[in-house]
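1st attempt posting a full record on here, be nice pls
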Amino acid sequence: MGFYLVPLAFFGLMALGMPVGISIGVAGMVGILDMGPRFMAMAPDRVFAGLDMFPFLAMPFFILAGEIMNRSGITAGLVKLADALVGWMRGGMAHSNMVASVMFAGITGSATADAAAFGNTLVPAMQKAGYSRPYACAVTAAGSIIGPTIPPSTLAIIYGSIMGVSIAGLFAAGILPGLLICAVCMAVIALTARAKGLPKGEGRPSFRIVVQAFREGFLAALLPVFILGSILFGIATPTEAAAIAVAYALFVGGVIYRALTWQDLYQIAVRTTRITGVIFLIIASATILGWWMTFNRVPQAIAAGLLAISDNPQVIIGLIVLLLLVIGLVMDINATLIILAPVLAPLTLSLGMDPVHAGIMIILALNISLMTPPVGACLFVLSSVTGEKIEAITRELWPFILAEVAILLLIAFWPDLTLFVPRLFGL
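the predicted structure (as tokens):
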């Protein structure tokens, strides 16, 4: 009976609207009580052991760097640069949204930060230019998941830390999938532009305008290149690169742009602390739940269940992708990653998958759930920022979701595509 109380406690608390970190923690403690009193005394050590990983230090630094760059108004420069590059096409502002998402992803590594920033800036601008608000929100949501795919990715840091996989390798492996997502979403925009009557841009910008836009967005666009280059060429570890990124962001935002006040820095610190605290609470709580799952051999049971369906590796990979997409519909992606990674990673290894390839597949599958109802975080952010109904956004979003699932399947079944960049740099 105790075994069934854990999922009942978790889903019951989630249904009551409790935060996911609290729900996981309470469910984990129910599981520990079922395991026996002596395990309860070991629980605090388990919690701190789950957080005591040096690579985790990179997360608050990358979040802080992104907050600084966002608060100092760098987003506007990136959008102007993206608009100069692709804004002249039919549906140009939608294309610019996608390209700007790629640039912004290399700064924040956060889908919700992208959705919030562009929901406040690009969505109103697109409306003014003649786009419907639901469509503008859908384009922003589709582009936002590029954030946690292209480095620096918080999910890659979490996965690499808990599974002992090279974070630098995961960062490198996320580059091509992120760019492919951008390309396929731009293809969807181009193919549907005439049918939807999307506005056409004013024509190709002059060379002078492109150069001016490049100057305004250059310092911001340089940050992701600087971060990734220092990691790939062995100059800095991901944690060191994250700390350097904070110093760079402070210099650009405070000294070059002169756009930061002490009040801004205080609010940035508070927001960074809150975001980091939520993520670390989920990690700590999931550590306890994961301990209970290991004790009850849940990973082995799931692996055996999947292998009982088929012994074909391609079928098993497809089932893993389906499982992640379905669970992502109803659970927070950080919690899902921390709970399921130790379950699925050994299974992928038994199928002969490279650990970096398996990690990117899992991360990308969970990223897609950020824009799928009913609990897609980016949908809620955009709905809150713009006032648009989630149902209306979702109706416009389906072509992008299907396109990104197609990219996920391509990544899952074609390992060389994911591993090309890591192999290029010997990671």
